Request: fold
Amino acid sequence: KAGVTQTPRYLIKTRGQQVTLSCSPISGHRSVSWYQQTPGQGLQFLFEYFSETQRNKGNFPGRFSGRQFSNSRSEMNVSTLELGDSALYLCASSLEGGLGSYEQYFGPGTRLTVT
Amino acid sequence: GQQVMQIPQYQHVQEGEDFTTYCNSSTTLSNIQWYKQRPGGHPVFLIQLVKSGEVKKQKRLTFQFGEAKKNSSLHITATQTTDVGTYFCAGAGAGSYQLTFGKGTKLSVIP
Reply:
């Protein structure tokens, strides 16, 4: 089975721009979660989607948004980029994601640099 | 909101020594999961604990879930250079779809 894929792997953007990151979960997995990883803050939860519905959202500003398509693929968007948005963005898929009870399979991440 | 604290932040050990990382939650957890992230890699699932007082072993790794389901530990016996990486615990509160990760313990093994 193919693993979680994320595109692009690397991205350099300028402050004020917007960016869209893509995630394809493992086949059959219906839950997709997004995390931001930085050296100082560790892994921070952004949001989780299941069957095209956002079930949970972390403490991030409204500039961070996401969506999930009917084939479970997911995208996240960051508008009006700030320097502090530079991070590794990780997508993780799981079978159900119900009540945090299923292990998550992480993709390789998208390394975003904002200049 | 739920907070998961993990200590120590860093640990340097000589190859062959034991290693332990501890995880504490501000709230009772429905389950706790452990992940390992190698340098330059992504987190990889190791194990999940669900029951109060549960202990699970994977070769040299021993995982424990506290009786109150608010703390957990990972112990590695006789570390090897292949154990290098950052170990994260992640907990889910009752009725939550969200996993809250600890900040991780970065393990360095000196050959």
Observations:
- The interface with chain B takes residues 33, 35, 41-45, 48, 50, 55-56, 58-59, 90, 92, 97-101, 103-109 of chain A (CB under 8 Å).
